[in-house]
């Protein structure tokens, strides 16, 4: 079977060999099921070429086969819309570290993204520990109480004393990413959607 060397969207292994185990057609389109050599999960790839992806041997790069779209798609890693630029940059560095299996680096960047975001939301909180800042933002109505509670359930890294010396796992880095992504959506994306909507209705009134 042909092999595709790529990153795994499940276990985040970097440059791992996926084996094409099954191929089929949907009308004129070709699809193949490829299995990750590291975790055993499967992805579906669109492919082109006259050779048989399952019968051929060797790296697809050296065969007359071209790969197209992928399901599930590789995560794009971007921060939610309207996240301030520096916060978004740290978030992206977190997701790209996560994609290549550097879970500690990912955890640190997600935390940095969150710290920067809380400073933007309230510069007076800068000297306080991260948990405290999140609690204060919730009591000031800038975050929901549920979001503050969630912050206490994820591993934030840094001076999170309970886990200080433990490395981040895929799960703890992913949990943190998920929390930060929702935090940024709530703190930046939603308010700007509302502002844009208000802007539109003001224009309507002015007309
Ligand atoms: Zn995998």
Structural description of this entry:
- There is one protein chain.
- With 207 residues, the chain is an alpha+beta fold.
- The chain has 2 domains: 2-71; 85-206, Four Helix Bundle (Hemerythrin (Met), subunit A), CATH 1.20.120.
- It is 43% helix and 19% strand.
- It is built from 5 helices and 6 strands.
- It has helices at 85-99, 103-121, 130-139, 145-153, 170-206, and strands at residues 2-6, 16-26, 29-36, 42-48, 58-59, 66-71.
- The protein has a 6-stranded mixed β-sheet with strand order 5-1-2-3-4-6, with no helix packed on it.
- α1 runs antiparallel to α5 (170-206) and α3 (130-139) packs antiparallel against α4.
- The longest helix has 37 residues, at 170-206.
- The mean pLDDT is 89.
- The structure holds zinc ion.
- Residues 8, 10-11, 13, 36, 38-39, 41 line the site of zinc ion.
Write the layout of secondary structure elements.
Elements: E1 2-6, E2 16-26, E3 29-36, E4 42-48, E5 58-59, E6 66-71, H1 85-99, H2 103-121, H3 130-139, H4 145-153, H5 170-206
Parallel strand pairs: 1-5
Antiparallel strand pairs: 1-2, 2-3, 3-4, 4-6
Helix pairs in contact: 1-2, 1-5, 2-3, 2-5, 3-4
Bound molecules: zinc ion.
Short description:
This protein has 207 residues and is an alpha+beta fold.
User: Tally of extended strands?
Assistant: 6
Q: What form results from the Cα inertia axes?
A: elongated
Q: What is the count of distinct domains?
A: 2
Small molecules bound in the structure, each named once: zinc ion
Largest sheet: 6 strands, mixed
Q: Rounded to an integer, what's the Rg over CA atoms?
A: 22 Å
Following the backbone from N to C, one meets helices and strands in this order, namely: EEEEEEHHHHH
Alpha-carbon distance between the two ends:
65 Å
Biggest sheet: strands side by side, in what order? 5-1-2-3-4-6
CATH top level of the largest domain is Mainly Alpha
Give the CATH architecture of the largest domain.
Up-down Bundle
Helix and strand composition category: alpha+beta
CATH topology of the largest domain: Four Helix Bundle (Hemerythrin (Met), subunit A)
| Percentage of residues in strands | 15-25%
Number of helices: 5
Low-confidence stretches: none
Helix content: 40-55%
Average predicted local confidence, pLDDT: 89
């Amino acid at each position: 079977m042909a092999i595709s060397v790529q990153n795994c969207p499940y276990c985040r292994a970097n440059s791992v060999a996926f084996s094409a185990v099954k191929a089929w057609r949907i009308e004129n389109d070709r699809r193949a099921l490829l299995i990750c050599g590291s975790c055993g999960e499967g992805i579906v790839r669109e492919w082109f070429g006259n050779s048989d992806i399952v019968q051929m041997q060797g790296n697809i790069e050296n065969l007359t086969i071209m790969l197209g779209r992928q399901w599930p798609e590789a995560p794009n890693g971007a921060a939610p819309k309207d996240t301030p630029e520096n916060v978004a940059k740290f978030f992206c560095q977190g997701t790209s570290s996560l994609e290549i299996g550097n879970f500690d680096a990912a955890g640190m960047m997600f935390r940095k993204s969150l710290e920067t975001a809380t400073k933007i939301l309230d510069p007076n909180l800068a000297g306080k520990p991260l948990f405290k800042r999140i609690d204060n933002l919730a009591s000031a109505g800038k975050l929901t109480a549920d979001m503050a509670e969630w912050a206490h359930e994820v591993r934030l890294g840094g001076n999170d004393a309970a886990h200080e010396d433990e490395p981040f796992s895929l799960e703890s880095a992913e949990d943190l990413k998920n929390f930060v992504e929702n935090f940024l959506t709530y703190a930046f994306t939603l308010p700007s959607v509302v502002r844009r909507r208000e802007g539109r209705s003001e224009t309507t009134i002015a007309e």
